UniProtKB/TrEMBL annotation:
Annotated protein name in UniProt: NAD(+) diphosphatase
Highest taxon in the source lineage: Eukaryota
Keywords per UniProt: ATP-binding, Hydrolase, Kinase, Magnesium, Membrane, Metal-binding, NAD, Nucleotide-binding, Transferase, Transmembrane, Transmembrane helix
Protein's organism: Brassica napus
Keyword Transcription applies: no
Biological classification of the source: Eukaryota, Viridiplantae, Streptophyta, Embryophyta, Tracheophyta
PANTHER family, per the entry: ALPHA/BETA-HYDROLASES SUPERFAMILY PROTEIN (PTHR46234)
Transmembrane segment boundaries: 7-28, 34-54
Length: 1406
């Protein structure tokens, strides 16, 4: 059409030009203009002609191309249609075609939860099953899911989708027709109308087909497909009774890199995996669980959940078939679970034939191992492994290892082993949530290997299990491989980190096996075990190779290792996988073989998976066993700007805190000489082991020695000579690389009598001192002093070579991670202190008469009856202080002349009469170094029985002391030198190897002493050569409290101290109410009560912070003082309290209400997920000028306006810091995503400045202005309330009662809760009530918006002497009290307060 128009136009144009030429010839003749016009016209005619020729040629070529493209397109469409059909791509059918194929949907062959299925025949004769999706929302979702899932898969065991149809609300899926219906009608009695059931071989083949189909969906598709509804009704059988999986209506497409997805619960009751309910997300293993249920149903020919009738009561109850299967399997009554129709048809002959069906056997186990993520994956190799033999080669390739890094200081590393069929990832997710920030968790994945218990079916496992019975064979080779893998993972950990291993189920078995390897010092194959374990945990597991331990733990060194290893075994009484008796017997076996620190915990309601109660016990046990401790700095002095710490305040590990930046870890091992396991008293004096009963038994036994009968309890004696206990050494040797181990030389009463008789002394009951009993050994321990005995090797005592060794040498030789050694050291220290006390208390201090022992040597009494004074053993306290500088980066260490070269330690001193501990620390530091100390904080204590004979025992009290001055002036009579040492220098001095070498050297020295080779009993000369390359300095070893003080500072107290105090410490600080001195209180009262108005100002002008010179005459002051003394003594609390800040005049003010000033940001701290504290600094010599309760205006630039001037956003904020604070103020800011000012705050960094103007007084408070003040705050509306609260509680004369009702969205949104709780605990006149909109599970406060009932219960009733303060978001204000008036005046009282009867005079709105 376009071509015709173009040709007509061109022709008309040519004719028009010819007419122009003719007309020109007629009118212009043959003139020059004619020729010019004719030339132009002819040119145009030629141009038009050329255009027509070119266009004609172009059109011809275009038509040829179009013809060719149409032909090729037709061929492509034919080929594409052919390929779609070959590839099985579904076709979109018309609704009319489906109605015709199904004859109007007349023949229904099935019905499910989401639709009905009809039989039909397509035009080409193909039989199809047409599924009609029913239900609007649910049907649309399932329709899209099923089309997406089935259209992307092609497998012979998956139903084929021919096509689909979607017209308006009608949706259809067209499947291939499977003739033999679904599996359920062939395996459940009563469902098959034509009779008969599937044979055993057919069921076996169905299991294989379904496994292949699921394996294809999980592993071989581009996107992993989860079926999520595997059940017999969705498994169809073709004409050959081969399985075809259908009904993808609930399927879920999952990306390859996703291990778990969280979705709403889908599927059919009875086939749902437990992880649906545990909110941990689902994976392909959820299909495997459902598949296991189907296999059970195929074996038993019954539903997994059935309702049965009790023949006696006629009541029906639900019966769970998998539980029955588990019970029958344990009882070895396998044939009772098999479908009786198969047995009657002789399809199954014996148990062996059933056990060979490995997939059903596997399904039994997979059902039972139903902890989170514990089901094995369904791989094609797994399906192919059905029927494979045990001869398959063991796989030793371990899976991926997952590591959970410590959130705090790294103190311990634990390898955690998963259960059968699981992997390391699932447990790493659980361990990451535990409140153990100092532990690094390593979670390896076991190799995949055939499991005999599963008939050779492969699964991730640490070793092979043939049978879960006591007599089952042990896979020692597999256990060694697993234990070696654990050891390799721990081998690269730092030397000062404690190591442990734990596990669940089979992993627990591997962990307990590792414990036996540690004790034996070797694996089962004889190779040495290289790791020093500090803790072992087994949850719901058992001890493999328990019987093989008999007779292997007899050597002394092996016994010591076994006795020193803490083990925790937990088991549930409801465990139906690893029965409870296995865990109980395993713990008994460990105890009987010398693992004395085995703890067994039983749980009544616990099955084969972890519950919170169990994990809480594990956390508490690890915290105690490994010495983990969380420490928080809560003690602050209101007059100090230095960091102080309180070790007495600890955080419970299962409690969350927003002050994570404050949490500091301290690895405090047991102090030397502390933790004596012997108790000096028993609950009852008549007890056999009590001092009095034991003493009477001793008196009766001594005359009969050596022919006395074996007593019960038995008696053992520890001899001392000149303060040195008797010891012997074991292990080691000339060719041995093992460090020798010392032991206390306990001897019998007969040997003790002989030892005393050798020097002409008779043994009597007063020679011995009672130490305490060992009840589990039926033993009472005593000590005796044989100091007249010559030093040297003591012979004649059994076959042991014993010698008296200096207690300090034993202390250095003790392995501080060996609990046995620490226990014996504590016993020796306790005994030495008692004997030394006996030596120095031989005579009465009152009359000079001799003292005689009483109560088995536990006390003494003057033999002079007229005096009769009692004397008890007491200790002499000594303060040990580590002085820290104000920046917290240097510590003061000293040297004494008696120290060995290179050793530096803390300062020390005695406490003088009438002196507190803190005063002693300050005095001793000043006397010895000339340094003034401010704050003093207690750390820990340690008994120290190694002083001179004049002091039988000292109690070392460790403190941190914070220096006010830094210049050192050493008292040379006390110290040789004292110096400030940096943290890094001290850290280098704490070399672990140095102390280990010292310990080995001392242990070897003791062995030489016992052999009679070494004569020296002291180790004071050995410290200088303990390391091949000497460090410039070293610190006393872990046996000294100084070491603990110094290491705590080096590794834990690393927070930099700011001046003024760091902002984050304010969050948890509640200053106690300080009482004014009498003089200060008098002048305050005097200033406020004087009738002469000019007098207070005149008096205040003369007083500068308590100092100054009075210019009044002495007589005037005397007269005034006398005149007002009576008034002071008789006046009550009605006199006003005058803040010290108001007594001071002449201070410049930091704020200006008329001018914007810049304040520098000093520090920030996070309060909650969307709230921060900002500390801004100013000149400390200035006064902030803030009144209660006042706000500040802040502003931030927002760009420029049309005139080029800076635009600002201005917002008011109320500081929450003390108005008297010097040099800083704090703002609490909630950061909103769209808040311009709050976003500006969030962008500020320390050093940036903020423009501030103010203050603007909102509410003028005066002490005792009201009897009771109620407060309602929401969110950051707490800030003005906190100003008022702080002002009231700081004033001891302000008796105002305060009640705060604080509303927030959730518990995490409650701002400054720690501070409010601390204020409430310290001040009885303050009560705080919390309410939240979205409570957590453990929330114990109010729930919901502020209501009338809450106000009635928490606030004062309307009265003239009550006042309600309200501050919060606009919605809350309107609901509670009504908002302010448009002119920002208080406005009318509305809402809840109006309903309760409060008037405008009783309510103030911020």
């Amino acid at each position: 059409m376009e071509d015709k128009k173009a040709n007509i136009i061109a022709t008309l144009t040519i004719l028009s030009l010819l007419l122009v030429i003719i007309a020109a010839r007629v009118y212009l003749k043959l003139s020059k203009p004619f020729y010019l016009l004719a030339g132009v016209d002819i040119s145009l005619i030629l141009a038009v002609f050329c255009f027509l020729v070119i266009r004609s040629r172009y059109n011809r070529e275009r038509k040829n191309l179009e013809s060719r493209y149409i032909s090729e397109g037709r061929e492509l469409r034919i080929e594409y249609s052919f390929l779609r059909k070959v590839a099985g791509v579904p076709t979109k059918f018309k609704l009319e075609d489906l109605e015709e194929a199904t004859d109007g949907f007349r023949v229904q062959i099935g019905k499910g939860g989401s639709g009905s299925v009809f039989k039909g025949v397509l035009k080409d004769g193909s039989q199809v099953a047409v599924k009609r999706i029913e239900g609007e929302e649910k049907g649309e979702r399932e329709f899209r899911s099923e089309v997406a899932a089935i259209a992307s898969v092609q497998h012979k065991n998956l139903v084929r989708l021919y096509g689909y149809s979607s017209v308006n609300r009608y949706r259809f899926l067209v499947y291939e027709y499977i003739p033999n219906s679904s599996l359920d009608v062939w395996i459940f009695p009563g469902k098959r109308r034509l009779g008969g059931c599937l044979t055993w071989d057919q069921r076996y083949q169905v299991a294989i087909d379904v496994a292949k189909a699921l394996s294809y969906l999980h592993n071989d598709c581009r996107s992993k497909i989860l079926h999520l509804d595997v059940k017999p009704e969705n498994i169809l059988l073709d004409e050959d009774y081969r399985a075809v999986v259908t009904d993808f209506g609930l399927s879920k497409l999952v990306a390859r890199d996703e291990s778990r997805v969280v979705t709403e619960i889908r599927g059919t009751c009875g086939y749902l995996a437990p992880e649906w309910l545990l909110e941990h997300g689902i994976s392909e293993k959820s299909d495997v669980y459902s598949y296991g249920i189907v296999l059970l149903e195929m074996i038993g020919g019954r539903r997994s959940i059935t309702r049965v009738e009790n023949k006696r009561t006629k009541k029906k109850k639900l019966e769970y078939f998998p539980r029955i299967v588990n019970q029958k399997m344990r009882e070895r009554r396998v044939m009772e679970i098999v479908d009786q129709r198969l047995i009657e048809a002789k399809e199954v002959g014996d148990e062996g034939q059933v056990m060979k069906l490995t997939l059903p056997s596997y399904s039994l186990r997979v059902l039972l191992l139903h902890s989170i993520a514990c089901h094995p994956t369904m791989s094609l190799s797994g399906a192919a492994a059905v029927g494979s033999s045990r001869n398959l080669k063991r796989a030793v390739e371990f899976g991926k290892t997952h590591v959970v890094r410590p959130k705090g200081k790294h103190q311990a590393t634990i390898v955690w082993l998963h259960g059968l069929g699981d992997n390391g990832s699932s447990w790493s997710q659980i361990l990451e949530t535990l409140p153990l920030p100092n532990i690094k968790w390593i979670c390896p994945t076991a190799p995949s290997q055939p499991i005999s218990l599963f008939g050779g079916f492969p699964s991730t496992a640490w070793f092979d299990v043939v049978d879960l019975t006591e007599n089952g064979p042990d896979d020692v080779e597999g256990l060694d491989v697993a234990a070696a893998h654990v050891a390799n993972l721990l081998a690269n950990e730092p030397a000062d980190i404690k190591l442990g291993v734990g596990g669940f189920s089979m992993g627990a078995g591997t962990s307990l096996y590792s414990a036996t390897c540690f004790a034996l010092g070797k694996y089962g194959n004889g190779n040495p075990y290289p790791i020093n374990l500090s803790a072992v945990i087994g949850l719901s597991g058992w001890l493999p190779c328990a019987k093989a331990l008999t007779g292997k733990l007899e050597e002394e060194q092996i016994k010591n290792r076994a006795a020193s290893l803490p083990i925790l075994v937990c088991h549930g009484k409801g465990d139906d996988v690893v029965p409870f008796k296995f865990g109980e017997k395993s713990s008994q076996a460990l105890l009987s073989h010398g693992f004395k620190k085995t703890t067994f915990k039983a749980y009544g309601a616990l099955g084969h998976y972890t519950i919170p109660q169990e994990t809480e016990d594990v956390c508490a046990w690890l915290t105690s066993t490994l010495g983990l401790e969380e420490m928080l700095a809560l003690f602050l002095s209101s007059s100090s700007s230095y960091l102080t710490l309180s070790r007495s305040v600890t955080l419970h590990l299962s409690r969350r805190t927003t002050l994570s930046s404050l949490t500091m870890s301290t690895n405090l091992r047991t102090h030397a000489y502390a933790g004596n396991p012997l108790k000096s008293k028993t609950p009852k004096s008549t007890d056999t082991f009590s001092p009095s009963s034991a003493f009477e038994s001793l008196k009766a036994l001594i005359p009969q020695i050596p022919n006395h009968p074996a007593p019960s309890p038995d008696f053992k004696v520890l001899p001392f000579s000149k303060g040195r206990p008797l010891v012997f050494s074991s292990g080691g040797g000339d060719a041995s690389t093992t460090t020798p181990i010392w032991h206390l030389g306990w001897i019998s009463l007969s040997d003790c009598k002989g030892m005393l008789a050798s020097r002409g002394v008779d043994l009597d009951e007063n020679s011995l001192v009672y130490l305490g009993p060992k009840v589990e050994e039926d033993l009472v321990c005593w000590a005796v002093d044989v100091s007249e005995e010559e030093d040297g090797v003591v012979s004649g005592l059994e076959s042991r070579k014993l010698c008296f060794v200096e207690l300090r040498t034993l202390m250095v030789a003790a392995d501080w991670v060996d609990q046995r050694a620490m226990d014996e050291l504590a016993i020796a220290g306790h005994a030495r202190a008692l004997l030394e006390w006996h030596n120095v208390s031989r005579f009465c201090g009152s009359c000079g008469s001799a003292n005689v022992p009483k109560e088995a040597g536990r006390r003494k009494q003057c033999s002079n009856k007229a005096c009769g004074k009692r004397v008890y053993p007491r200790v002499d306290p000594v303060v040990i202080m580590l002085v820290i500088d104000r920046e917290n980066d240097r510590a003061l260490l000293s040297r004494q002349s008696r120290y060995v070269p290179r050793m530096w330690s803390c300062l020390a001193g005695f406490i003088e009469p009438g002196e507190s501990l803190e005063e002693a620390v300050r005095r001793e530091t000043w006397e010895e170094t000339g340094i003034e100390v401010g704050d003093v904080v207690y750390h820990s204590s340690q008994p120290w029985p190694v002083g001179p004979s004049s002091m039988p025992c000292q109690l070392m009290l460790g403190f941190f002391a914070f220096a006010n001055t830094l210049d050192i002036n050493v008292d040379k009579e006390e110290l040789e030198d004292a110096q400030w040492h940096s943290r890094e220098d001290v850290k280098k001095a704490l070399a672990f190897a140095e102390y280990r070498k010292a310990q080995r050297t001392a242990a070897s020295k003791i062995e030489q002493i016992c052999k009679g080779v070494e004569k020296s009993k002291s180790l004071t000369t050995d410290f200088n050569v303990e390391s091949g390359e000497l460090a410039p300095m070293f610190i006393p070893g872990p046996f000294a409290i100084a070491h603990h003080l110094i290491s705590t500072w080096v590794w834990s107290l690393t927070h930099k101290v700011l001046n003024p105090l760091p902002l984050r410490y304010y969050l948890c600080y509640s200053p106690p109410r300080s009482e004014p001195t009498m003089a200060t209180s008098f002048f305050r009262r005097l200033a406020r009560s004087a009738p002469i108005a000019a007098f207070p100002a005149a008096l205040r002008s003369q007083i500068k912070s308590g100092h100054g010179t009075f210019r009044f005459s002495a007589g005037a002051i005397a007269a005034l003082s006398g005149g007002f003394s009576c008034y002071y003594l008789t006046s009550g609390n009605n006199l006003a309290y005058l803040d010290q800040a108001k007594e001071e005049t002449g201070l410049k003010t930091a704020l200006n209400p008329d001018k914007w000033l810049e304040f520098k940001l000093q520090d920030t701290a996070t309060v909650s997920h969307n709230t921060k504290l900002f500390r801004f600094s100013f000149d400390p010599s200035a006064n902030l000028g803030l009144h209660v309760a006042s706000c500040l205006l802040t502003r931030a630039p927002l760009g420029y306006n049309a005139e080029g001037k800076t635009k600002y956003v201005v917002r008011p904020y109320t500081p929450i810091s003390d108005p008297e604070a010097k040099g800083y103020f704090d703002l609490l800011i909630k950061v909103y995503p769209d808040g311009k000012m709050s976003q500006h705050f969030a962008s500020l960094k320390p050093g940036d400045v903020l423009e501030v103007k103010g203050p603007i007084e909102k509410f003028k408070y005066s002490p005792n202005m009201k009897k009771h003040i109620g407060m309602i705050a929401g969110g950051s509306g707490i800030t003005p309330m906190l100003q008022v609260i702080d002002t009231i509680v700081k004033n001891p004369e302000d008796n105002t009662k305060i009640t705060l009702l604080y509303a927030n969205v959730s518990p995490d949104d409650i701002l400054l809760k720690q501070k409010l709780d601390a204020l409430q605990a310290n001040h009885p006149n303050l009560k705080v009530f919390y309410t939240v909109d979205n409570p957590t599970k453990n929330w114990k406060g109010g729930v919901g918006y502020v209501s009338k009932d809450m106000a009635l219960k928490g606030l004062p009733l309307p009265a003239d002497d009550t006042l309600i303060l309200v501050c919060g978001p606009p919605g809350m204000m309107e609901h509670v009290s009504g908002g302010k008036a448009p002119d920002w005046s208080q406005g009318e009282v509305k809402g809840i307060l109006k309903e309760l009867g409060f008037t405008e005079q009783m309510v103030f709105k911020f």
